[in-house]
Amino acid sequence: METEAETVEAARAAQPAEPELAAEAETVEAAQAIGSVEDLTRIEDQDPLAEAPSDTADLAQAAAATDRSAAEAAGPATARVSDGDSPAAVAMIDEDELRGALEAIMLVVDEPVQEIVLAQVLEQPTERVAAALEAISAGYTRDGHGFELRRAAGGWRLYTRPQYAGYVERFVLDGQSVRLTQAALETLAVIAYKQPVTRGRISAIRGVNCDGVVRTLTSRGLIEEAGTEPETGAYLYRTTALFLEKLGLDSVDQLPDLAPFLPDDVDEVADGER
């Protein structure tokens, strides 16, 4: 009996615990639910763009850094264009290349070329080009070359040295061109002083037929046809610009007078020849 009573009492004592456990469980579940709601509330209350200012600032800083890098990269090129002859602004070429470029240009120019023109072509400071030309000229003289780089007429050009003029003259006159014969020189003189003149008149003055000589002078470019004579229709001949260039004249008016070259008894000589 006692054992049964103890069992009953234990059962009664255990019954109130079950509601307490249930209540406690409900309390825990409620707390968890409240916590979840608070978390959701905090998430909902957060502005999704709240961190945007920081991100935007980072992007702005990155863009500014990129702009600075681009400006630094573009800086030297801009300086080269704007600073002109500033030695620090242009892209310098080495001394050997500069010397070679100047020598190559000097070989093809047909008149003295100014330092500033060379500087513009080579995109180098004028002072550096001038110094290089001086050094090249001094080097040619020191090494004893047959040519020299000389300043003339405000520019620079290659010239043969005066001490070798005799060899150059011999080469030009004998090696490269055939000298005019005495007959050709006489015919050319008649045309120069009597132009425009016909072949018949030239032959009458010289006393010999000059058809072949006239053809030679025409082929050399020293004389040319200048129309026809109205009375006879014969071709007239005159000297060309090449003739003036060869003699170093601006016009035929600069030809020397014939009187000093004629003999005193010219009339007697002419009568004797007849």
Order of helices and strands: HHHHHEEHHEHHEEHH
Structural class: mainly alpha
The coarse silhouette is elongated
Distance between the termini: 195 Å
Compute the number of strand runs. 5
- The main sheet orders its strands as 3-5-4
Could you describe the largest sheet, including whether it forms a barrel? 3 strands, antiparallel
**Average pLDDT rating:** 75
Structure overview:
- By secondary structure, the chain is mainly alpha-helical.
- The protein has helices at residues 2-45, 52-82, 95-108, 115-122, 126-143, 165-176, 182-194, 199-206, 211-219, 241-247, 266-273; strands spanning 147-152, 155-160, 197-198, 223-228, 235-239.
- The strands form two sheets. A three-stranded antiparallel beta sheet has the order 3-5-4. A two-stranded antiparallel ribbon has the order 1-2.
- α4 packs across α5 and α7 (182-194) crosses α9 (211-219).
- The chain is elongated.
SSE blueprint and pairings:
Elements: H1 2-45, H2 52-82, H3 95-108, H4 115-122, H5 126-143, E1 147-152, E2 155-160, H6 165-176, H7 182-194, E3 197-198, H8 199-206, H9 211-219, E4 223-228, E5 235-239, H10 241-247, H11 266-273
Antiparallel strand pairs: 1-2, 3-5, 4-5
Helix pairs in contact: 3-5, 4-5, 7-9
Concise summary:
With 274 residues, the chain is mainly alpha-helical.
